[in-house]
Amino acid sequence: MGSPLETPGPFYKRVLLKLSGEALMGAQGYGIDPQVVQLFADEIKEIARGIQLSLVIGGGNIFRGVAASAQGMDRVAGDQMGMLATLINAVALQDALEKKGIDTRLLSAIEVRMIAEPFIRRRAMRHLEKGRVVIFAAGTGNPYFSTDTAAALRAMEVHAEIILKATKVDGIYDRDPVKFPDAVKFDELTYMDVLSRQLQVMDSTAISLCMDNGMPIIVFNLKEKGNIKRIIYGEKIGSLVKG
């Protein structure tokens, strides 16, 4: 008798998932919807034990430094408040994951030892090797850098194979598909395409960093259940950005 067919393993083994803070709001206009956090945790649980997974989460559901700066607040102060907002989101996500039995570690770029470990690259790598989900909070720890840039930086530092950028739409379009029904979706783009067309995938600093270091990005719709797992196992979902 022949040997039984083996279930194919994950296509990607070490992944960084970028979540926006706004995604945690659900239908609310502000803050964190606990039901949405639970749904995210369920999606992450589906793949967390098969791969090495890290996450970067934004803080736009609570505070956005750029918007505050436009209204007269000092940009550095605004960005520092935004970093604290990412910590609130990260704690909420960590709590939801651990209640589902997923071992996690929260690492912060700013020092808050009562809440999170300080970000130390080798420590982050070790946590991943031990199968823990690592949540990176507080961006890069510096003002003027977005959490998109933090995601690109952390992905490079921990030697992730790919960045998965979760959004509210199913990929990258030539213009906003919510406002323009005839918007055209791209299955694959180069980094230069994204920069030259000024497509709102990630900010230009993040895209340039990925381009300089050959870090591919997949932009996909997080609202469709199972998308993360399908991408991890090699299914073509969303839009791919690479060299």
Describe it for me?
The longest helix is centred in the middle third of the chain and has 25 residues, at 75-99. The protein starts with 13 loop residues before the first strand and ends with a strand. The protein is of the alpha/beta class. 37% of the residues lie in helices and 19% in strands. The chain has a nine-stranded mixed β-sheet, with helices on both faces. It has a two-stranded antiparallel ribbon with strand order 7-8. The chain has a single domain, classed as Acetylglutamate kinase-like (Carbamate kinase), CATH 3.40.1160. α1 (34-48) crosses α3, α5 runs parallel beside α7 (204-213) and α6 (191-197) runs antiparallel to α7 (204-213). It contains eight helices and eleven strands.
Overall strand count:
11
The structural class is: alpha/beta
CATH class category? Alpha Beta
Largest sheet: 9 strands, mixed
> Could you say what the CATH architecture is?
3-Layer(aba) Sandwich
Summary tags:
243 residues, alpha/beta
Task: Compile the SSE list and pairings.
Blueprint: E1 14-19, H1 34-48, E2 52-57, H2 65-70, H3 75-99, E3 104-108, E4 117-118, H4 121-129, E5 133-137, H5 147-157, E6 162-167, E7 172-173, E8 185-186, E9 188-190, H6 191-197, H7 204-213, E10 217-221, H8 227-232, E11 239-242
